[in-house]
Design brief:
The complex is a heterodimer of chains A (about 140) and B (about 230). By secondary structure, chain A is mostly beta strands. In chain A, about 5% of the residues lie in helices and about 35% in strands. In chain A, strand 5 and strand 6 (about 100) form a beta hairpin. Chain A is globular. In chain B, the strands form 2 sheets. A 4-stranded mixed sheet of chain B has the order 3-6-5-4, sandwiched between helices. In chain B, a hairpin with a 1-residue loop joins strand 1 and strand 2 (about 50). In chain B, helix 1 crosses helix 6 (about 140-150). Chain B starts with 7 loop residues before the first helix and ends with a strand. Classes of the chains: A mainly beta (about 140), B alpha+beta (about 230). Strand 4 (about 60-70) of chain A pairs antiparallel with strand 1 of chain B.
Chain lengths: ~140, ~230
Amino acid sequence: MSEYKKPLPTPDIETKEYWQGCKRHELLIQRCKDCGTYRFPPMPMCPECNSMNGEWTKVSGRGRVYSWFVVHYATHPDFVDEVPYAVVLVELDEQANVRIPSNMVDCKIEDIKAGMPVEVVFEDVTDEISLPKFRPVR
Amino acid sequence: MIEYGTTPQQLGMVAVTQRKHASMNERAMMRTPITIEDYFNSRMIAEPFRLLDICLETDGGCAVVVTSAERAREMKHRPVYIMGAAIGSGPHPTPYGMSTFGWLRGSHTELYGKHISPQLYGMAGVTPKDIDLAELYDEMSIAVLVQLEDFGFCQKGEGGPFVEEGRIEIGRELPVNTHGGFLSEGYLHGLNHVAEAVSQLRGDAGERQAKDAEIALCTSLGMQAGSALILRR
């Protein structure tokens, strides 16, 4: 597990709970306790009603591919051996404008389609960090 | 592409048309004309975008002199007047620097232009029909299509066909990026678009001069936020 050489996220005051959830293989999204709106990426204030009153909520991890692109030119040296790879934007079933950028697993690039149903899977890349990725729902 | 069926060919025609304009611009970094075949032969960078969809990297400088209309009349050069200006973003900017993460929440096909257009045209007292040429922020080919729609030159989703039909060429309905834009002249963050609009409105654009250019639109953006100017001669 310690062989993972690519850049790792650095959990901070805003994102600590998110990455702790990933480590337990749970996808947690912030939700406003006043108006009920989910929000991503992690942020202190609700973008709908400006309330600072939020909580972390476990979500289904299911969603659909909203859009994607395929990286052919690696701008970071650690990704040179990975190209070409797809970056997908997954819109969660819970709410239309909550989208997570990630990668697909168990899916060829040419099989990615807009609107395809996907579900989260977690890749344990170090002892502390697990990355949420998505695979087609079969 | 997902929402409106925009094609790679339509993206390519932005690059081809702007290069044609740049071939008449001695300041442009890239002046050799390209064909749509050259576009399809350029390497993929971030699919669907190829090398020729993406702006140049440029070290350069650009300046404009802004003064009162009264003083401008006394100056050596023919003045160009500011009719309207607006700046803004979409309706849901996130706390992170205007709307840097807007693409996680908002539309990918409706950007700042849609939201600042009413204010911009209102201040200038004109409509899209009155605009003779447009210098549109073109960090990527797709931005030209979205802004043609957002600033009211065609319906949403019709930017691709608008370009493919040649309507953005000099001599046609709405000349766009008459200097070659960021894709071919150079990436000076939008100020070169203002400088080009001024040249065109003064009638100083030489071989690439758009005929009877009286009113021009110039735009600039960063992620989902942006600004725009309407100038007249």
